Automatic annotation (TrEMBL):
InterPro entries named among the record's database cross-references: Amidase (IPR000120), Amidase_CS (IPR020556), Amidase_dom (IPR023631), AS_sf (IPR036928), GatA (IPR004412)
The keyword Cytoplasm is assigned to this record: no
Domain Amidase per the UniProt entry, residue ranges: 23-468
PANTHER family per the UniProt record, alphabetical: GLUTAMYL-TRNA(GLN) AMIDOTRANSFERASE SUBUNIT A (PTHR11895:SF151), TRANSAMIDASE (PTHR11895)
One of the record's GO cellular component terms: glutamyl-tRNA(Gln) amidotransferase complex
Molecular function (Gene Ontology), one example: glutaminyl-tRNA synthase (glutamine-hydrolyzing) activity
Classification via Gene3D superfamilies: Amidase signature (AS) domain
Reaction(s) the record says it catalyses: L-glutamyl-tRNA(Gln) + L-glutamine + ATP + H2O = L-glutaminyl-tRNA(Gln) + L-glutamate + ADP + phosphate + H(+)
Protein name from the UniProt record: glutaminyl-tRNA synthase (glutamine-hydrolyzing)
Organism: freshwater metagenome
GO terms for biological process, alphabetical: translation
Length: 498
């Protein structure tokens, strides 16, 4: 059963062919069997998950109306608060903290009867592209345990790719859902900024952060998207509008007559040969389905990476100031009459990792007197130019596409001491976050050089998320027909059939 899609599991539950309790236990058994190798989870809530599953089964037995995903297991990125469950954001400074409230995403999942089996590993405070910056050690890619699963949502992506759960939630600040989805051979979506509430999402960069779904198919991801999206009065940036009909779009999958824009700046030089090959093949498949392929020019995208690494650290330096050892979380150095300032310094030094310190220092400098306009202000101007580039491009095409990441998964430790090399892994995903639009990554095949997954990125205008699923479903069906089976069936034994 755990090899089936979430939609197939939901169908089996509705027909009485299995129970949520049995399904949840099967996934808990899978976690026990493989997570010592993958290390996707920071905390497995076995008792809580089984209690949630039993509650869903009881409601189903009474004939109560349930959501389509009621009873389906899910992994939750540890950046989202879940009441009474350890929530660390991958940082030792929050080790042992149990939130007294649910994030809106967690509350919506519970209301829909989705079974949250545990919290997944991540780059500390979502700062990273490999899940090597976690305060609790790295997560490993199920396709090759010597490689990174991407980040910062690498734990969630690895959980889905290794069949430990059929669904997961991640967060995407500069590509942290789409990039790990690409590197682990699954589907990941960053919804339009404000379409999913950020209430209870531990902030890294408030103008860029966005929670979103992972699944092994486009339809599974759409089903989860509809559960977590919607207006929330607790979040001042939440969009008060109807949720786009993403499930209907995922079921239609028709691209005939659509214009698909290929971004000139997000391909070619700097992209691994196998990545570019799979991307070009996917374009040909979409053209064979009746889509019109056009090239679009987005000249300001070459500045996106630099702008992002000024805006995000600047907002991080402000957001992370709250972790001061005075209210919650880690507290060390509180002895022999130490001053509050000394305790804060000692605690922050002990609790924050190297990458978090690097970004706090960079952001504080960029916001300092005399430098604000030169750095943060200039970066915001670049952001406006990128938004304008997208507007011009979407005037010529219904969706835009590119490879999700320039390479396949790299070796653990290969780039951890070279931050710039790691940052370049997000070159194709960052523009979406700066513009506040939506993006999807889905598997486009395996690179011939290393046999590892390649991601195909689709981008759509704000609140037009259904276009992602319409194009994604069409491409997924064409690729599955070409391969004869979904990509994960080609994975090594750890990630393939359980």
């Amino acid at each position: 059963m755990i090899n089936k899609t979430a939609a197939e599991m939901a169908d089996a539950l509705s027909k009485g062919e299995t129970t949520s309790l049995a399904l949840t236990q099967a996934h808990l058994d899978r976690i026990s069997a493989v997570d010592s190798k993958v290390k996707a989870f920071l905390h497995v809530d076995k008792e809580g998950a089984l209690a949630q599953a039993a509650s869903v089964d009881a409601k189903r037995a009474k004939g109560e109306k349930l959501s389509p995903l009621a009873g389906i297991p899910l992994a939750l990125k540890d950046v989202l608060a879940q009441k009474g469950v350890p929530t660390t954001a991958g940082s030792k400074i929050l080790q042992g903290w149990r939130p007294p409230y649910d994030s809106t995403v967690a509350a919506k999942l519970k209301a829909a009867g989705v079974v949250i089996v545990g919290k997944t590993n991540m780059d500390e405070f979502a700062m990273g592209s490999s899940t090597e910056n976690s305060g609790f050690g790295p997560t490993f890619n199920p396709w090759d345990l010597t490689r990174t699963p991407g980040g910062s949502s690498g734990g969630s992506a690895a959980a889905v790719s290794s069949f430990q759960t059929p669904l997961a939630i991640g967060s995407d600040t500069g590509g942290s859902i789409r990039q790990p989805a690409a590197l682990t051979g699954i589907v990941g979506v960053r919804p339009t900024y404000g379409a999913v509430s950020r209430y209870g999402l531990i902030a890294y960069s408030s103008s860029l952060d966005q929670a979103g779904p992972f699944g092994r198919t486009v339809l599974d991801t759409a089903l989860l998207h509809e559960v977590i999206a919607g207006h929330d009065a607790h979040d001042a940036t939440s969009i008060n509008a109807d949720v786009p009909a993403v499930v209907a779009a995922a079921k239609s999958g028709d691209v005939k007559g659509l214009k698909i824009g290929v971004i000139k700046q997000l391909q070619g030089e700097g992209y691994q040969k196998g990545v570019q090959t799979r991307f070009d093949e996917s374009l040909k498949l979409l053209a064979s389905l009746g889509a019109e392929i056009v090239e679009v020019d987005c000249p300001n995208f070459e500045y996106a990476l630099a702008a992002y690494y000024l805006i995000a650290p600047s907002e991080a330096s402000s957001n992370l100031a709250r972790f001061d050892a005075m209210r919650y979380g880690l507290r060390v150095g509180d002895k022999d009459g130490a001053s509050a300032e000394a305790v804060m310094n000692i605690t922050r030094d002990a609790g924050f990792g190297r990458e978090v310190k690097r970004r706090i220092i960079l952001g504080t400098y960029a916001l300092s007197s005399g430098y604000y306009d030169a750095y943060y202000g200039s970066a915001q101007k670049i952001r406006t130019l990128i938004i304008e580039d997208y507007a011009k491009a979407f005037a010529k095409a219904d969706v835009l596409v590119s490879p999700t990441a320039p390479t396949t998964a790299y070796k653990i430790g290969e780039k951890v001491d070279d931050p710039m090399a790691m940052y370049l892994g997000d070159v194709a995903t960052i523009p979406v976050n700066l513009a506040g639009i939506c993006g999807m990554s889905l598997p486009a095949g395996l690179a011939e050089e290393d046999g590892l997954p390649v991601g195909f990125q689709i981008m759509a205008p704000a609140m037009q998320d259904q276009r992602l699923y319409q194009v994604g479903a069409a491409l997924e069906a064409a690729l599955n027909s070409k391969w004869g089976a979904p990509i994960l069936s080609n994975a090594p034994s750890l990630g393939g059939a359980a």
